[in-house]
Amino acid sequence: MRKHHLLSLFLALAFIAAGLTAVSAQTATPIPIVGPPYIAPTATPAFCQSPLVLTVGSTAYVRPGANIRYQPILSSALVNYRESSTTVIVTGGPVCADGLNWWQVRAPGEDGWVAENFNGVTLLVPGPPDPSAICFEPLTLPVGTVVPLISGGVRVRAEPGLSGLVLTVGLVNTEVTITGDPICADRLNWFPVQLVSAGVTYQGWMAEGFEGHRVVEEPISTDPVCAPPIRLSNGTRAYVNSVDPYPKNLRSEPGVESPLLFTLIDGIGFTVIGGPVCADGLNWWNIQILSRPDVVGWFAEGGPGNYWIRRIQSRELK
User: Fold this and answer.
1) What does R_g of the chain's alpha carbons equal in angstroms?
2) Measured between alpha carbons, how far is 288 from 266 in angstroms, rounded to an integer?
3) Which residue in 191, 228, 245, 275 has the most C-beta neighbors within 10 A?
4) What are the structural domains, with CATH classification, of the chain?
């Protein structure tokens, strides 16, 4: 009997405990979790190495395979692709993006941005320029030279280089005046020129053309070339001595058209006080007559086979 009562009491207590647990599960307040707000993970930014030592205006060159982009990022539009080494001028940068150092450059065609390297391949190299970009020896066209164009469609640009703005196009036989010294750009020699096209005067830059295909030619000199002068110096004493019987002229300036001062016969001694000057195919010396120190002028030396001057040897002065 007692065991029956104990079992009933145990079951009653178990039932009450189960009921309390169910009630507690339905009415319990959740415990709040305190902490920082959730932040979604992001990619770690790519850092760049130290950039090349370049400044705006520096000369460099890009190697074959370099992409020139509109903006300094890999996803930017491609404006140029270099199949060969090309000389460029740095116009901006550096900018670090996509783990690469980018430089803004001016090159033939579209200007843009080029990375220093990509996938371990060096794309941009500081000057000196790539040997393949060195120009040929320019034509000899002194300032003031006027030459006709021997080729049509010659572009005159605002700046030296293939990317310069085209100001006008010269036609065959159009005369251009050289206004300065040449500049090498884009493997071409560029001369500053002035020309008149359709009644308008233009000043700009003209490429002389490629080796073997020039747009202008060097003018042929009509001045006779002088032979190497005889060895005289200031203070040298000499005298007139020619193999022909004709008297020689002393003139006020070097040149056969200069005013005549005196006619000198063989044996007239003089002192050299200046020269030589090449004029009319002759070397001229500024001399002072020994017997008449007040007479000074320019005297030609003659030429091979008939020099008109002979130095006075020391023994001749005794």
Assistant:
1) 45
2) 15
3) 191
4) 59-131 (2.30.30.40), 146-214 (2.30.30), 237-317 (2.30.30.40)
Question: Given strand 309-311, what is the order of strands in its sheet?
Answer: 260-264, 248-251, 296-300, 282-289, 269-279, 237-240, 309-311
CB-CB contact of 135 with 188 (8 Å): yes
pLDDT surpassing 90 at residue 318: no
DSSP annotation of 21 = H
The amino acid at residue 233 is: S
What single DSSP character describes residue 255?
S
Which residue type sits at 47?
Answer: F
CB 148 within 8 A of CB 216: yes
Q: How far apart are CA 94 and CA 61, in angstroms?
A: 15
The tally of CA atoms less than 13 A away on the side-chain side of residue 222 is 0
- pTM for the structure as a whole: 0.36
pLDDT of residue 149 exceeding 60, the answer is yes
Question: How far is the C-alpha of 126 from the C-alpha of 117, rounded, in Å?
Answer: 13
Whether the pLDDT of residue 240 is over 70: the answer is yes
**Is 278 exposed, middle or buried, given 0-12, 13-18 or 19+ CB atoms closer than 10 A?**
middle
